Amino acid sequence: MTMKKNLLVAALAACGVNAAHANGTDLYVGAYQVSTAMEESIDEMLTAKLKASFFSSAALYMDVLNVAKHSASPGELKSQLEKAYKDPKYTDEQRQELADASNEVGMVIDYLKSNGNTKGIESQKMTFCSADDVDATNWPGIDDVKNQFGTQNGITNVLVSTIYMPDENDNCAPTSDWASKLRKGATKADFQSIPFELIAYSDNVGNTGGELVYILENDIEEEVGFEEKFESFTFYQSSSDDTPSEGVFRRYRATVPTVLTKDAYYYSSNISCQECNGVNEKFKVESRYESDYAGQGNRDGVIDNAFVAATATEDSAGNLIPGFIDESLSDAYLVDATLNFSSAGNSTLRVVVDKFDLEKELVVGRYDSQLSAPHLATSGSLKFLNLVGQFGIKEDMEEQGVDVNSESLAVKGAISPNQFTITDGKTDFQYTATDVDELEALKNIIALTPSSISYNERSVDVTIWNGVK
Q1: Labelling 114: which of 234, 453, 460, 464 has CA 20 to 30 A away?
Q2: All structural domains of the chain with their residue ranges
Q3: Taking the complete model, does pTM exceed 0.70, yes or no?
Q4: Quick one: fold of 378-449?
Q5: pLDDT of residue 44
Q6: Other beta carbons within 10 Å of 407
């Protein structure tokens, strides 16, 4: 998983949370730009899975009680599940499910207690609402799963069981009031009627017995001034067994201000697998960050720029295309491209091709169309981006007063076997490696020698890469 994590960090290069970085200093391309942001994404995956586990445990308990509404704190829910699985009136199968659910809630509580931002939540009472057979076909994220897998896997519509939070009056709004409104491009009034948090599940998607878990975080009420402000997480696999032939984790976020003089942004990322969890597993990482700029006037609803990135393979013509990576390979390529739609046609503003040593988990070569000929990164710049990409220190640097947007950012002095210093020319940031993995990473970075890259800007067909969604 470490290798996949590092590839994920770098593959989402041009699609970080802060679009300004992609247009700013060269240091923010590749692994460096999104080291912190992608660590956050991986944390989001963990949190999303924990949240799904917690909500599904509540749903199981509600199903056993045959109720559509239930209030309990995480701690109370665990106690209720423990009591239920010891009750002989339930079948052995039900009791085992309740016992498993109790353990799942216990893990969630442990996570909440260990996280400074969530400590204390385990004691807060919350209310759950539930409903079955809800049409979720057009929900943001599920619609993309249908578009990607619908034809080969027979996905025409997706019916889910859902558990969701009540409205501000603690009432469970009927799904008929909001389910059909949940879609991309919905109005602010639509989003105001949709629960601020929901989780949905189906174990029978399409004609392959596919499984789907869906999470929505609707922030329309928490942050004023937005027409759309939400994020969704969609887990889909083509079958419910341990080794499905296909699977995807998709993250989608829309940030659309109500005022047309402010920019709108759309972000998506996919981690896909083939022969998932098997000995021949392959995976692909894709990401897209779109901007609708207001400029000097109003937004026009047309995307101006897109930053796309993905793991890459070579086609029959020798060009790089988005593709699945085999973990048995010695190295892999990642491409990110900045596409400009403001002018006629698809104009490529920038292409970066990174070569990765999969064993050492390092960027060992880089082609950057914006560097002077021969457009290849130097040993010093490769070591720099690997330091920041590997150790995820952007936030720590900011806290110590380092200008992380400075063009002068560089490694100060020599990299020692257990320590390095980064400076913006005014303020220094020193990092000391402590554990075995960090020390090994530093050892490999010190010994890094740039690898040649035979690909260039002409190896990337804009039309094909614009297909990354």
Answers
A1: 234
A2: 53-67+74-124, 378-449
A3: yes
A4: Split barrel-like (3.20.180)
A5: 56
A6: 12
